[in-house]
Amino acid sequence: MARRAGLTDRRYGNYVTGDREPDLATLLRISETLQTTPNDLLGVSPERVAEGVEEQVLRLHEVASLLQPGDLQILIIQAEAIVAARAAQTGD
User: Alpha-carbon distance 92 to 76, whole Å?
Assistant: First the structure.
């Protein structure tokens, strides 16, 4: 596998054991050689992304519940501005 991806056995072994992380170009080369995607190699799936979003929303809720009313209003305005800016970028 290492040779097919153009890597030394030692270098590839470091990636497999987690001792080192490949740069993006190397990750792409490895994923192409294995006929998979970088996301699969990294363990990123739509389910895991959704779980991450749920955790972030819970964290935001916990923090928001600790804010003073005026600070909470500022946070809401900031969040709405981010959503509006993102929509303007994507044309939604």
Answer: 20
Please tell me the distance from the alpha carbon of residue 9 to that of residue 2, in angstroms, as a whole number: 5
Give residue 90's pLDDT band: very low, low, confident or very high (50, 70, 90).
confident
Provide the b/e sequence for 73-87 (b: ≥16 CB within 10 Å): eeeeeeeeeeeeeee
In three state form, how does the secondary structure of 22-58 look? CCHHHHHHHHHHCCCCHHHHHCCCHHHHHHHHHHHHH
Cα–Cα dist 53/76, whole Å: 18
27 closest CA partner among 14, 37, 18: 37
Q: Is residue 5 a contact partner of residue 12, using CB atoms and an 8 Å limit? A: yes
Q: What per-residue confidence (pLDDT) applies to 48?
A: 66
